[in-house]
Write a structure and sequence with these properties.
The complex is a heterodimer. Chain A is of the alpha+beta class. Chain A has helices spanning about 10-15, 85-90, 110-125, 145-155, 165-175, 225-235, 245-255, 280-305, 310-315, 330-340, 360-370; strands spanning about 30-35, 40-45, 60, 65, 85, 95-100, 100, 105, 130-135, 160-165, 190-195, 200-205, 215-220, 265-270, 275-280, 320, 350, 375. The chains are: A alpha+beta, B mainly alpha.
Amino acid sequence: MTDNIDEPEAEEVNPPSDTSSSADGKKRKMYVGLDLGTLLSCVVTKLTKPGSDDVPGELIPTVVGYPEDGILAGILPGNSSMLHGEEAMANQLHLRLVHPLSDGVVQDVDATKSFLNYLREKIDPERKREVLCVVGIPAEADTEAKENLKKAATGAFDGVLFIPEPFLAALGMRDEEQVGNPDYKDPVSNSLFVDIGAGTTDFCIVQGYFPKPEDLMSIPFAGNEVDVILDQAIREAYPEVEVPLSMIRDFKESYSYVGESESGVRVKVPVEGKPRKIEVGKQVGGACNQLLEEVFETIKKVIAVASPESVFSLLQNIVLTGGGSRIRNIDQELQRLLLDEGYEDPEVRISAREVKPFVAIGAMKVAKAAREDQWVRL
Amino acid sequence: MSTPHVNPLDALKGGFRKACVKRLVGDESGAVEVLRDEIPKLVVAWAKSTSLEAAEKKAKLKELFDDESSRAEELAVAFDLFAGRFETRVATIVRDELSKVAGRLEALTGKLDEASRQIPAEVVSSDDGDSNEAQFDSAEENRETDSEDSVEADELDPPRGIGLRFDEIEQMIDEVLETDDS
């Protein structure tokens, strides 16, 4: 179960199994950084070495599966009463899938609690450690959202800290070892981060300091909306075809692009049990272009409130992150739109081709830096 | 101002405005130069060109100086708003400068009063007490407005994020926890 989890750092969290408690009887601490996403979560228990290309952490679908009534014994692994993550996805035919979060905040406390306990089992199956977890939360999360998350985390972790995701993303992107290097371009010195997730797209101006609320903007238009638009477009083009949302999501993740409409994307779908190939290039591009348009319009609003003295250099540091940044050509098209709109020399780049879990990495950095008295004990 | 065909009133307004602007941008010596060398002549030229009674001339002069002071104030406000997102240090400097401008405007009105005394007696009566009082009031108003604008600028633009750098993680956590508690 824990094969994909990085080995925790030896000095803090990975003592020999028979010494998981210190001499005074206290449990050893284990620090965890968690990006609790609407569709995907990422757990980091170890930071990679500076300069390493290794991607720390494990991505886990944020989903809980409850068995359908009357399911036969032996169908589900271990006759589980509940499955989570990849196991739930693999057995979705027999499960009622529940996404514990919506737009980045808890919508089902029980399901979230179950999911977090599942994560705990993965990182500390014997529950021998004192697990202290920093969890990224949307910048605009209100008191109720935090309370719900706290309730859900109770029992799963021993202590938590809820930190706004833009803080963590910026921290996660930063390579502290390189800060003194004159050739290193510190991504947090003056940048506009655009994090295109599943539930929301978040915009954040970062200028060397942890951003204030006014520097943040979030729109409820992201990957999930693209799925919905793509679903509608395919239904309109092929009324006889019934494609499940999971398949729609696969089409998007495999073929997404922005810009001029393209054809040649032929996908196999079931029609009355028989395979049929349909062309979805235009539909995929149309759905992704709507996301691009929303991102572009919001970027204009964010730029409008940026400091006049820094806005020109800010325009040359627009950084796309999150799953949506993997849409083909999205950086080039966004840059073109900004240029056409009259902005001077805009430069848009992708934070990393392989999507690194910056929020979870940042959360891990916070976990390691937090004072003992700062943890919220559960 | 140097063009002989310009209306003397407009020339006087332009000259005073020029002095204000020079002060606003920090050119103190330029402002003093204008006030010393140009304004008295312009006041005399205007006084000669108008058929107003002495009291009316005085009132008109006061109105003119008040108007131009207000314009300078508006310019200062606009300047302040644009500076709204500057770094704290710069914003502080701007505010200090604006406060100084308000103080200097008071001194300016004194100099103008002195200039008005150079006008022939038949043109302007020498009711300096009222004039000074009115100008002092005007300067006080300017100072009050300046103070309000400074507060507004602070509210509009708390600069530099939450004021903590990315290596100040502990302090950031404190800030987040404090926000949660409030």
